[in-house]
Design a protein that fits this description.
GO terms for molecular function: GTP binding; GTPase activity; translation release factor activity, codon nonspecific; translation release factor activity, codon specific. It is found in: Cytoplasm. It is a single chain. An 8-stranded antiparallel beta sheet has the order 18-17-23-14-15-22-19-20. Strands 2-3-1-4-5-11-6 form a 7-stranded mixed beta sheet, with helices on both faces. It has a 7-stranded antiparallel beta sheet with strand order 27-24-26-25-29-30-28. It is globular and about 80 Å long. The chain is built from 14 helices and 30 strands. It has 3 domains: 267 residues, P-loop containing nucleotide triphosphate hydrolases (Rossmann fold), CATH 3.40.50; 99 residues, Elongation Factor Tu (Ef-tu), domain 3; 121 residues, 2-Layer Sandwich (Alpha-Beta Plaits). With 527 residues, it is of the alpha+beta class. The structure holds guanosine-5',3'-tetraphosphate (G4P). The site of guanosine-5',3'-tetraphosphate has 17 residues, from α2. Guanosine-5',3'-tetraphosphate (G4P) binds next to α2.
């Protein structure tokens, strides 16, 4: 095996998906703590002044208590290199999430033991399903009164369609959460809390006799349930997991670091390593070919003292070396990588080399956009990450005409980062482009960032459209003449989009003009 294949085999690149408040930040800290990437919980990411990433729009993030930025945390565990890619925490940013999930090989679905499958979790799960990303489930907050474990399994199965296959099973619950049965090695493990969860929990392996003597009734009950699981065949099946038919389930409490080590072990043992990524011609790019990478996120001004634009690139093949001059597939232009970094929170470390699965932050990435490919030597281009169907449309204009230039720059920036889609038409002109979003909060981000980073106040007006369809040059003029319809060119890809007030209107237009081309966009819930 070549060095590159060996390095790829020990990579685990994943994201944690959850509903806000399920404990994603706590879990992130616990994982990093467990893996000894940082020395003290709270140093990476968290609430109440603990948040690591600073930037102008973080004020908004703090005020709303949501995470709207993404970066990647790297840490090593059991000889494996983990890349944890942070996903935005709000449903409005599902478009962003979709792009982030294009960069991972596995997802950890984090559930709050008392709440089970919450709406946002399900939405994010759907994205994983669409991208065929294997999902490991972690039931968090087991140290608090919650639901019955068996009941939660039923809910997971019912809502996701995946067969839950617990690889750990809780012994006791709430204040009496003693530990878990590790079903892989058939072993009881007792957890002992360390104050504040700031260090790893102490794990003691118990024989069945010890468990009976020391834990008693809760152990007996757990054992009965484990026997039941085996009887109904709820055992881990690697093929079914990778084929997106089953989800391994673990139980724990991220706050006390209970069960986090088992999660990391599961990632090492069963989560998929990077595999060859299919290119635009559907030919998988072998991992040991020269470097290729996919830009999955572009973010400007993450740090006010840097004022730069960082492109996050997932390495798909080959070895990345800082200083390499790559080719930007979209333009054929060279791209210098002198300032490659790994970025998470405030931490920025220069990265000198990277392998398939790793995430590299490239600074000064003005020309790069989400979905772009970079390569070295032999040319390759990966499929673009599809855009979500926008459902909200607002016009934006600059309040002070002397700031028109900054306004234009700011809108271009938001468009390049994919914060919103920008739609233009001759009728409306450049002064007031139409911004399109999956969720209305994306507009708040635009407003806030234009004020903060471009010193430009904008006025926005909602347009009475709720549905977009892709059309073509022949149908466009016919559509443009219809009442309740407007046609735009989408800046990012030049697609012609027809906007309709509602579905009823679209059906009416189609009835009168049956030959019109109207194609649905990705993830349009209305088909
Ligand atoms: P998020 O990023 O998914 O939004 O969740 P976050 O980690 O911020 O956790 C939300 C709340 O849940 C926090 O409490 C956190 O301490 C708590 N929590 C997370 N994991 C566990 C767990 O395993 N057990 C228990 N009992 N609680 C857990 P908070 O009071 O909102 O914030 P904080 O002041 O404690 O940070």
């Amino acid at each position: 095996m070549t060095a590159i294949l060996q390095e790829a085999a020990r990579r685990r690149t994943f994201a944690v998906i959850s509903h806000p408040d399920a404990g994603k930040s706590t879990m992130t800290e616990a994982l990093a703590l467990h893996a000894s990437a940082i020395t003290e919980a709270g140093a990476v990411h968290g609430k109440a002044g603990r948040r690591g990433v600073t930037s102008d729009w973080m004020d908004m993030e703090k005020a709303r208590g949501i995470s709207i930025t993404s970066a990647a945390l790297r840490f090593e565990y059991r000889g494996h290199m983990f890349n944890l890619v942070d996903t935005p925490g709000h449903a409005d940013f599902s478009e962003d999430t979709y792009r982030v999930l294009a960069a991972v090989d596995c997802a950890v679905m984090l559930l709050d033991a008392a709440k089970g499958m919450e709406p946002q979790t399900l939405k994010l799960f759907e994205v994983c399903r669409h991208r065929r990303i294997p999902v490991i489930t972690f039931v968090n907050k087991w140290d608090r009164p919650g639901r019955e474990a068996l009941e939660l399994l039923d809910e997971i199965q019912e809502k996701t369609g995946l067969r839950p296959t617990p690889i750990t099973w809780p012994i006791g619950t709430g204040g009496f959460f003693h530990g878990v049965v590790d079903r892989v090695v058939d072993q009881a493990v007792r957890y002992t809390r360390t104050p504040g969860g700031a260090t790893k929990a102490i794990e003691t392996e118990l024989t069945p006799e010890q468990a009976l003597a020391e834990i008693g009734e809760d152990w007996e009950r757990a054992k009965d349930e484990v026997d039941l699981l085996s009887a109904i065949g709820s055992d881990h099946d690697q093929k079914a997991f990778e084929a997106h038919e089953s989800t391994p389930v673990l139980f724990g409490a991220a706050l006390n670091n209970f069960g986090v080590g088992r999660l990391l072990d599961a990632m090492v043992d069963i989560a998929p390593a990077p595999a060859p990524r299919p290119d635009v011609k559907d030919d998988p790019r072998p991992l040991d070919r020269p470097f290729s990478g996919l830009v999955f996120k572009v973010q400007a001004n993450m740090d006010p003292s840097h004022r730069d634009r960082i492109a996050f690139v997932r390495v798909c093949s080959g070895r990345f070396e800082r200083g390499m001059v790559l080719t930007h597939a979209a333009t054929g232009r060279p791209f210098a990588t002198k300032y490659a970094q790994s970025v998470f929170g405030q931490e920025r470390a220069t990265i000198d080399e990277a392998f398939p699965g790793d995430v590299v932050g490239l600074v000064n990435a003005t020309a790069l956009r989400p979905g772009d490919t970079l390569y070295d030597g032999s040319a390759v281009e990966f499929p673009r990450i599809p855009s979500f169907a926008p459902e909200h449309f607002w016009t934006a204009r600059c309040r002070d005409s002397s700031r028109a230039k900054q306004f234009r720059k700011g809108i271009e920036q938001m468009e390049a980062e994919g914060v919103v889609q920008v739609l233009r038409s001759e009728i409306r002109g450049d002064q007031s482009p139409v911004l399109a979003a999956v969720g209305p909060m994306q507009f708040d981000v635009v407003k806030h960032r234009l004020a903060g980073e471009f010193n430009t106040e904008i006025a926005m007006d909602r347009l009475d459209f709720s549905l977009a369809r892709i059309t073509d040059a022949e149908s466009a003029p016919v559509l443009a003449r219809q009442r309740g319809v407007e046609v735009f060119t989408r800046a990012i890809d030049g697609e012609l989009l027809a906007l309709f007030t509602d579905e009823w209107r679209m059906r009416g237009v189609l009835r009168d003009h049956p030959g019109l081309v109207l194609k649905a966009l990705l993830a349009d819930t209305r088909g």
